[in-house]
């Protein structure tokens, strides 16, 4: 269908929540997209940070094709192939266990289920991270906040206030908008859910003042290690450490929203690892499954175990198809040394951009 025909139909039947560019893409390979008129484009948007391996990655396509021929969906009331393997791989990545992640990724890519099961089993003393699979970043952040509040209620300090950063972005559901401290996003949807307090990013003094005032009323600090939607604004190591330490002092947790900055974009599997400050819970999405909708709540076992059957759920989260795509994507990212590549390319771009006379800051 031509662009003009598509525009006409969408103007009548599709809710106008996006200001779309007048281009209709029909095909993609690698980092190239092709419009309906045959014109090719270099894709620097990657579906808003989603297509980690580009378009039409052979490993992902093969995994999707094989899974689609077998089974698409059965719900979370049953076990499915590869879900445990993917969760084990995420746990090793959260621990920045490069060697463990690589051998497990090799086994997953080879379809060696016996080896993957053996390699995925936690070693003595290993920090285990558990995963809840969702469909989007907003869902992942909702799940992270629910887990933090439930942990506070059942095992922590009983607080329910979440400290969030000005300029942050956590999604477009009502709860995640409430956590997104930007008036232009919030004003149209008030009244919003309560229990959120704003802090200026990297203002350690303000963070201390908030904790001095609220103390054990706080159940979590939620932040993006690198803010994305409001501009690329990194947290400082000092602020990240203060957020973790102050939270732990009152029995609260630190939530890292890694939806945009995570999945090998910072030179590490997750952006928090560049600071050396470990969160208790993190939210993932976007680049985790190379274009197939998926989100994830990943939390330390001692916190994640607070969730019991019925506390949280998702009809489509962690579907057979999404898990297959995620397994293929993460395996390819681990085995292809994408973290090192991102670090090298990032350093090169920073150095070159910094030499331009009209560039005042490179983030």
Tell me what you see in this structure:
It is a single chain. The chain is α/β, with parallel strands linked by helices and 363 residues long. It folds into two domains: 1-45, no CATH class; 61-344, Type I PLP-dependent aspartate aminotransferase-like (Major domain) (Aspartate Aminotransferase, domain 2, 3-Layer(aba) Sandwich). 41% of the residues lie in helices and 14% in strands. It has 14 helices and twelve strands. It has a seven-stranded mixed β-sheet with strand order 4-12-11-10-7-5-6, sandwiched between helices. A hairpin with a 2-residue loop joins β1 (25-29) and β2 (32-35). α4 (83-94) packs parallel to α13 (320-335) and α5 crosses α13. The longest helix has 18 residues, at 137-154. It is globular. The mean pLDDT is 96.
Summarize the structure.
The chain is α/β, with parallel strands linked by helices and 363 residues long. The protein has 14 helices and 12 strands.
Which key terms come to mind for this protein?
14 helices; single chain; alpha/beta; 363 residues; 41% helix; three-stranded antiparallel β-sheet; 2 domains; 12 strands; globular; seven-stranded mixed β-sheet; Aspartate Aminotransferase, domain 2
Secondary structure elements and their pairing?
Elements lengths: L2 H11 L11 E5 L2 E4 L4 E3 L3 H4 L8 H13 L12 H12 L3 H13 L2 H8 L8 E6 L2 H18 L6 E5 L8 H6 L3 H4 L9 E4 L4 H11 L3 E6 L2 E2 L5 E2 L2 H13 L3 E5 L23 E4 L10 E6 H4 L15 H16 L2 H17 L9
Parallel strand pairs: 5-6, 5-7, 7-10, 10-11
Antiparallel strand pairs: 1-2, 2-3, 4-12, 8-9, 11-12
Helix pairs in contact: 3-13, 4-5, 4-13, 5-6, 5-13, 10-11
């Amino acid at each position: 269908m031509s662009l003009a025909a598509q525009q006409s139909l969408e103007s009548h039947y599709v809710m106008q929540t996006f200001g779309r560019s007048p281009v209709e893409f029909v095909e993609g390979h690698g980092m190239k997209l092709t419009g309906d008129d045959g014109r090719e484009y270099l894709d620097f948007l990657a579906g808003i940070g989603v297509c980690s391996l580009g378009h039409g990655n052979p490993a992902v396509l093969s995994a999707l094709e094989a899974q689609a021929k077998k089974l698409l969906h059965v719900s979370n009331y049953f076990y499915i192939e590869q879900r445990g393997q993917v969760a084990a791989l995420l746990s090793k990545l959260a621990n920045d266990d490069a060697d463990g992640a690589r051998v497990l990724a090799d086994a997953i890519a080879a379809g060696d289920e016996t080896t993957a099961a053996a390699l995925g089993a936690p070693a003595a003393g290993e920090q285990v991270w558990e995963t809840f699979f969702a469909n989007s970043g907003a869902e992942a952040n909702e799940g992270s906040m629910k887990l933090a509040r439930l942990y506070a209620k059942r095992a922590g300090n009983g607080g329910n206030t979440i400290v969030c950063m000005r300029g942050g972005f956590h999604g477009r559901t009502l709860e995640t908008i409430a956590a997104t401290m930007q008036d232009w996003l919030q004003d149209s949807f008030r009244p919003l859910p309560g229990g959120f307090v704003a802090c200026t990013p990297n203002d350690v003094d303000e963070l201390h003042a908030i904790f001095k005032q609220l103390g054990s009323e706080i159940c979590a600090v939620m932040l993006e290690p690198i803010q994305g939607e409001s501009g690329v604004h990194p947290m400082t190591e000092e602020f990240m450490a203060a957020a973790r330490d102050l939270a732990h002092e009152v029995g609260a947790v630190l939530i890292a929203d890694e939806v945009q900055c995570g999945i090998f974009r910072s030179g590490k599997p997750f952006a928090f690892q560049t600071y050396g400050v470990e969160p208790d819970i993190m939210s993932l999405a976007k680049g985790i499954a190379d274009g197939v909708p998926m989100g994830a709540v990943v939390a330390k076992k001692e916190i994640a175990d607070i969730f019991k059957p019925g506390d949280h759920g998702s009809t489509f989260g962690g579907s057979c198809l999404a898990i297959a795509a995620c397994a293929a994507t993460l395996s390819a990212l681990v085995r292809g040394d994408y973290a090192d590549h991102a670090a090298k390319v990032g350093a090169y771009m920073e150095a070159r951009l910094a030499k331009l006379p009209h560039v005042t800051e490179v983030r």
